[in-house]
Amino acid sequence: MKLIPWNRERVDELVSLWNKELSIDFPMRKELFIQNSFADVNVLEQGSFIAEDSNGKVIGFVVSKMWQENTPVVMDSKRGWIQVLLVDSEHRGIGIGTSLLKHAEAALIENGAEVLQLAGEPFHYFSGIPDEYSEVQRWFEKFGYYNKINTFDLINHMSKKYPFPENSSASFAVLSIKEKEDFLSFLKRCFPGRWEYEAIKYFEMGGTGREFVVAKKNGNIIGFCRMNDALSPSIAQNVYWSPLFEQEIGGIGPLGIDPKEQKQGYGLEVVEAAMAYLQGRDINTIIIDWTILVEFYEKLDFKPWKKYGIYLKEL
């Protein structure tokens, strides 16, 4: 076995290995892999490797990330992420995974990481280690990682019609491109950081606003909910695994309400509006990713679908 540098020319082999091992739960598309593991400027190439056997066949890989993007959004520059570490099941138990992990960790530490996190990075695949792979969770625990919290993906097959919210003191509508700067200003004021960054990237990728429902009072934005589908400008996290379904699926989240306007029911209402819009686009299965608010979403008939453990290692 030898480790070689991260190489986009090997993408077909990397996707093939992923699907050999994970497609039953998380089927990978080439365009998604390129989007998240090559096109993202935060990929730390010196901490990302491909493992080959003696015949040059790909038998494993690891992708590391650190915040490297030049953006006005304040992000955690001391956190390093391991996006994915995968070894061919026919070659496990001989130290390949350990070698990939140690090389990735060394590069992250060399670049200033003080906390290492498994998944959950910008343009992530998972919020943490999927519960389907409890043996992977135990394996990482041997290397000093601990489970900080569990998160969930939720699903609703929407067997009934969800009405657009009425009798509210707020109004709800799809964001207009003309409202872009007002929306970004709202996010910077109320939700600085990751949600602000993701919205900036959305517009950079050609987003026009159709993926956001905004809540307004007196003409001012007080909240939002993102809604994704197959026509979105990038493959969004809550529709990553749409190949598991015969029908088209949609995604909801994140959502946020101005702290000054919370506890008035606007959170549920903006989600209801997003659900109504997606049903109007002939989507009847919706997924919410990376949440701990299970009871909140159960009010709108969402149920747990997948569970993840967020694992950290403090240096």
Describe the overall structure.
The chain has helices at residues 11-22, 30-37, 96-110, 134-141, 180-190, 194-204, 266-280, 294-298; strands spanning 2-5, 49-52, 58-66, 79-87, 115-118, 129-130, 146-156, 171-174, 212-217, 220-228, 250-257, 286-291, 303-314. With 315 residues, the protein is of the alpha+beta class. Strands 1, 2, 3, 4, 5, 6, 7, 8, 9, 10, 11, 12 and 13 form a 13-stranded mixed sheet that branches. Helix 5 runs antiparallel to helix 6. The longest helix is centred in the N-terminal third of the chain and has 15 residues, at 96-110. The mean pLDDT is 97.
Structure class = alpha+beta
The helix content, as a percent range, equals: 25-40%
Order of helix and strand elements from N to C terminus: EHHEEEHEEHEEHHEEEHEHE
CATH topology of the largest domain, which one?
Aminopeptidase
Runs in which pLDDT lies below 50 for 5 or more consecutive residues are: none
Radius of gyration: 20 Å
What's the total number of strands?
Answer: 13
